[in-house]
Specification:
The protein is built from four helices and no strands. The chain is mostly helical. It is rod-shaped.
């Protein structure tokens, strides 16, 4: 009987330890879940604020700031319109329209820039060989 009572008492001791451990987990689980949710919320808030600050920065567009060469090259024409030298015709037309709207003489631009923009479009579309402008 002694050996069976020893086995019984050791199994009860193990059971008590298991019950104590499971109570600890059950009591601490909501706390751990709450801390995890709070950490996720703070991290998400930080990421959203960082994204909004990034979106609020002005997007700087680079335009051609230099003077014009006596005879316009394909490189200069591409810089004026903001496209690559080997850009497709559709992209050249779209870029020409965008730049011309911003610099049209009827809307406050000047004739010299309008002529240079048109010359750049002609060169990139292959209509002229860089014959120079009227001005």
């Amino acid at each position: 009987m002694t050996s069976s009572s020893a086995i019984y008492s050791s199994s009860i001791g193990k059971l008590n330890n298991t019950i104590h451990f499971s109570r600890f987990i059950i009591q601490e689980a909501p706390l751990l879940a709450g801390v995890s949710v709070a950490a996720a919320a703070l991290g998400s808030r930080y990421l959203i604020q960082a994204w909004q600050a990034f979106k609020a920065q002005p997007h700087i567009r680079r335009f051609y700031y230099g003077g014009f060469e006596p005879v316009m090259t394909r490189r200069e024409a591409a810089l004026i319109l903001g496209v690559r030298e080997r850009a497709a015709m559709e992209k050249v037309k779209e870029a020409h329209r965008r730049v011309m709207i911003a610099n049209h003489p009827d809307r406050g631009g000047n004739n010299y820039l309008a002529v240079k923009i048109n010359e750049a479009k002609d060169i990139l579309m292959g209509r002229t060989k860089g014959s120079g402008s009227v001005f």
